Automatic annotation (TrEMBL):
Function, in words: May play a role in ribosome biogenesis.
Organism field: Thermothielavioides terrestris (strain ATCC 38088 / NRRL 8126)
Protein name per the record: Ribosome biogenesis protein NOP53
UniProt keyword terms in alphabetical order: Nucleus, Ribosome biogenesis
Disordered: annotated segments: 1-31, 97-119, 161-212, 246-328
Xref: InterPro entries: Nop53/GLTSCR2 (IPR011687)
Short name of any one Pfam family annotated for the protein: Nop53
Compositional bias segments (type: Basic and acidic residues): 294-328
Amino acid sequence: MPVLRPPSGNPDAPQQYKQPSRKGKKAWRKNIDISEVQQGLEERSEQIIKGGVLAEQDTPGLFSLDTVGDVELEKRFPKHVKKGLKADEIIAQRSAVPAVSARKRSGDKTTDGILPVKRQRTDYVTHKELSRLKKVADGHHEQTVAVVDAEYDIWAEAKEDQKPEETFSFLPKAEQKKKPKTLEQQPISLAASGKPIPAVPKPKGGHSYNPAFTDYQDRLIEESEKAVEAERKRLAALEAERLKLEAAARSAAEAEAAEARADLSEWEDDSAWEGFESAGEELSVKAKRPRRKTQAERNRIKRRKEEERKAKHEAAMKRKHTQAERVKQIALEVAEKERRMALEKIEMSDASEEEGDDVKLRRRQLGKFKLPEKDLELVLPDELQDSLRLLKPEGNLLKDRYRSMLLRGKMESRRKIPFRKQAKSKITEKWAFKDFSI
């Protein structure tokens, strides 16, 4: 009797799912992936064999509640045997050592008979080190560091007596380093008053985490006014932009209307050529021919020019006379101006010793980019905490330090460049591969 064997190879249908084009009718069924559909049909048939589709059955038919319990459990564990905790079982297995007695014992006298090894103590200060520290506290140092000025100055002129060696005479001479002009200049403060701004300004009472009511109210009102002014400027800018767009749209409409009128006038001109010219257009207009001026007209023009010259001369003399009369008044004004300038210089010299404020800054700043805005260091009334445990520290010391250096003129404001500008490269293919010989 012949032996029946299953067919060799993959029983599934041939699959060609990676064909790029499916536009032809022949490739519609041939290239459709139906593996998920086949798997679902197989699962459905298995569920039908086992008793029905699970999705179509009710919940009570799928689940059952066990209210009786396991009957065999009572046979395995009789009633007089009570199962204890696992922790008690583990302790019972490992508690071979007797418990420690609760009576008091003197632990110093009780020893195991082994003498302890003496070790040198390292957690104390020796007498020698103590005497040295006392001398240092009194100002007597064993070794003193002598402060000596730098012997080498990078901006100093090179010595002439130093001649290069003959073996290296062909090398170019080293250029003298030029001292920059700004090295001796003081940094320019960005304060509007020109006063120097301290590196770490003293905060006012309103900056505290537990401020006084008056200081906090004044600072809150000040910051609120700044926010309102910024919002007003933003709305004004939006309104100006809207008006600009409306004007542009209006001008575009007027231009279109003008073009339409021009096209209409051209059409009317063309109609005149076609024989539709009106009777009024047939009338010819005589142009006024140029003629020579008479002697009376020339004399009249000459007299008018002479009168204009005299009036201009009289006005200049009157202005000069008025200025001559005001010489004393002008001299008094100049003296008053000089006195006021001298007082301003004295005030500026006195104010230079005071500290500047970063609230009002100069209009012209250092560098091309604007100064970064200062963070709003203000806590709203509902965010104030009455306990240090709930306190949330705010601010960034790195940002404050960087902005302080910008305000004091130590450095210019820069813009962050995330990507460095790469050199442009052009890729070409050489034609050397075409130079071949047979």
